[in-house]
Design brief:
alpha/beta, 2 domains, Quinone Oxidoreductase, Chain A, domain 1, seven-stranded mixed sheet, binds zinc ion, 29% helix
């Protein structure tokens, strides 16, 4: 069938996002065609559009990783597989963004991001900024009725990554002090909510004063405007030693983040928005028994728990702005400006 899709044919500014007519084949065996209703943007969308030196994206491609929609057609064999989850034509579904083989050791051990053939919808294959997308039945989760399509889309990569960082990697315990950088970003908002839900004290940094109240509303106990004061000085002032730092800012903050950690502390990272090269004084690492933990994404299974917690109102995605699908370039511009507090979602 003919569909409209946003396409990236070459890397560059928002002008490289072009809406095109595209042929979408019928869904193959164990595949499903989903009518796209909402796609939430991530920082990853900017990398896909702008390109990353030394990394090859499969251009031309359709961007969009975090997709929610309605089942429109079933490929051979998929009806039986989905029936047990109550999914049929017309069901609203969340598309889990990670794609893996499903039968290697990593997949069977429950941490599919380590699968040798792991990929992400909208990064390593066509994504959801289109009328329709074909996905495997393994990627479908029935959308909880209490969540809107916009809310469900806003929960995927950020909460999955935050959950992996804090729960799986850093093994956060109640009562710990956690420093979360860039408190207005999607993944940091998810970290603040998850850390508070699990009984931690949360300190976060923001770049503008108008984000302070918003971060406090989320539950952050202390909010530091990092443009006005050095966050390490402020931590000293409020008398907080932190045992976990979430740092996806990278070169601007990393060295100070390490120094902020108490003995036995853990630094978790899932990105480097200000640059990937950092200098580390190894004496801080071994003398203080510090761990540096990296991750991207997380296990498909954890997404079920996240959606469940959100359905119960224990996690609440923050939406900065919703755009119609034909304004995808404007959504990219707002994401890139760092002005947003929360998620940018395109809907149709
Ligand atoms: Zn695998």
């Amino acid at each position: 069938m003919k569909i409209k899709a946003w396409r990236i044919e070459k890397h560059g500014g928002v002008e490289v996002l072009q809406r095109k007519d595209l042929d979408l084949p019928d869904p193959g065996p164990m595949q499903v065609r989903v009518k796209v209703q909402a796609v939430a943007l991530n920082h990853l969308d900017l990398w896909v559009r702008k390109g990353v030196p030394g990394h090859k994206f499969p251009l031309p491609m359709t961007p969009g990783c975090d997709v929610v929609g309605k089942v429109a057609a079933l490929g051979p064999g998929s009806a039986e597989s989905l029936a047990k989850d109550g999914i049929q034509v017309g069901s609203e579904v969340v598309v889990s963004p990670g794609v893996s083989c499903g039968h290697c050791e990593a997949c069977l051990s429950g941490f599919d991001p380590l699968c040798p053939s792991y990929g992400i919808i909208g990064e390593t294959m066509d994504g959801g900024c289109a009328d329709f997308i074909n996905v495997s039945v393994a990627n479908l989760i029935l959308k909880p009725a209490s969540l809107s399509v916009t809310q469900a889309a806003a929960l995927l990569i950020p909460y999955l990554t935050a959950w992996t960082m804090l729960v799986r990697k850093a093994q956060l315990k109640p009562g710990e002090n956690v420093l979360v950088h860039a408190g207005g970003s999607g993944v940091s908002i998810a970290c603040i909510e998850i850390a508070k839900m699990l009984g931690a004290t949360v300190i976060t940094t923001v770049g503008t004063d108008d984000k302070i109240a918003k971060a406090k509303q989320l539950g952050a106990d202390h909010v530091i405007n990092y443009k006005q004061t050095r966050f390490r000085d402020e931590l000293k002032k409020i008398g907080k030693k932190v045992s976990i730092v979430v740092d996806h800012v990278g070169s601007e903050t990393f060295a100070e983040s390490i120094k902020s950690l108490t003995w036995g502390g853990r630094l978790v990272t899932c990105g480097a928005t200000s640059g990937p090269m950092v200098e580390i004084d190894l004496r801080h690492i071994f003398f203080k028994n510090i761990s540096i933990l990296g991750t991207t994404m997380g296990s498909k299974g954890d997404l079920h728990e996240i959606l469940n917690l959100a359905a119960q109102g224990k996690l609440k995605p923050v939406i900065d702005h919703v755009y119609p699908m034909d304004q995808l370039p404007q959504a990219h511009e707002r994401l890139e400006s760092r002005a947003a507090f929360g998620k940018l979602v395109v809907t149709q």
